[in-house]
Amino acid sequence: MPGTSTSLLREARPANPRAVWYHLAWKLLLALSILLLMLVGIPLPGNLIVLVPITLLAWGALFVGIASSNLFEGLPAIRWAWIALTLGAYGALVIPGVVAGIPRLADALGPVAALTLAAHLGRRDLPQALRDWALVMGLAFYTALGVQAMLLLTTFGVVVFVVGALFPPLLLEATLLLARRLTNRPESLPITLAALLLSTLLAVSALAWTLLNRSTQPLWLAIFALAVGLLIGGALLVSHLTRPLIEAASGAYDGKGKGYNFRRALVELSHGPILISLVLYIPLRLLGMAMPGA
Prior knowledge:
This protein is mostly helical. 77% of the residues lie in helices and 3% in strands. It has twelve helices and two strands. The chain has helices at 6-12, 17-39, 52-71, 76-100, 102-118, 126-154, 158-166, 168-183, 189-211, 218-241, 243-249, 262-286; strands at residues 41-44, 47-50. A two-stranded antiparallel ribbon has the order 1-2. A hairpin with a 2-residue loop joins strand 1 and strand 2. The longest helix is centred in the middle third of the chain and has 29 residues, at 126-154. It is globular, with a radius of gyration of 20 Å. 35% of the residues are buried.
């Protein structure tokens, strides 16, 4: 995989402001499409099946497939084999997790790791095989656990997931682009911190309005805001700092994702919500607020 040198970063982030805003519009369109799919229901006799789990499973599969297609090297046949292996590992991990909870995902981790490693034993370049196996397992496990965490947030309502995980990274990106446009200067530490603080405050305010009772005492409201703000702000900061890595997974540095398109937008859109959901999942699990069976 090509490195992320300064010249490549400039290539991945063109100076044309219209192109950058166009890319953000792609992400907003995808985010709205995901939201609409989550709200769709299939009426059945005496029941209504909401497509939240199906949407999240498909979203994760697309993320894994696109990212692995950009990260694996070699002949097309070999690359397609590793992509299929990564998707298979993702499915073997995420489906038990969604159906029966995190303990089943953990139970599947050992067999999946062993089987995916066995698929590399016949290769001659063992160091490269080990790196490919680590990529297969890392990408599959990260996405499967992220989908499980996003599904947990949706149990509190789709609105909670949207305001708490899906839109804060987009708000951060839009704020940084607007600040760059108004100041006519590249991103600086004060501007980044101000945009990060604004995005976190809006997300925490929306979550407090959605989750907390209107009669909540100010002290508990302050504790909630501080705790959730630290979690969401930390996840946003990590997603911002690791942006070059996720851009590499989107194909921004090797010409496969040249220009702004659906594939690149979907990969870059996924990183922030997955990180935020994973960070919020931990305290919810500790508080015993996970969904049944999780």
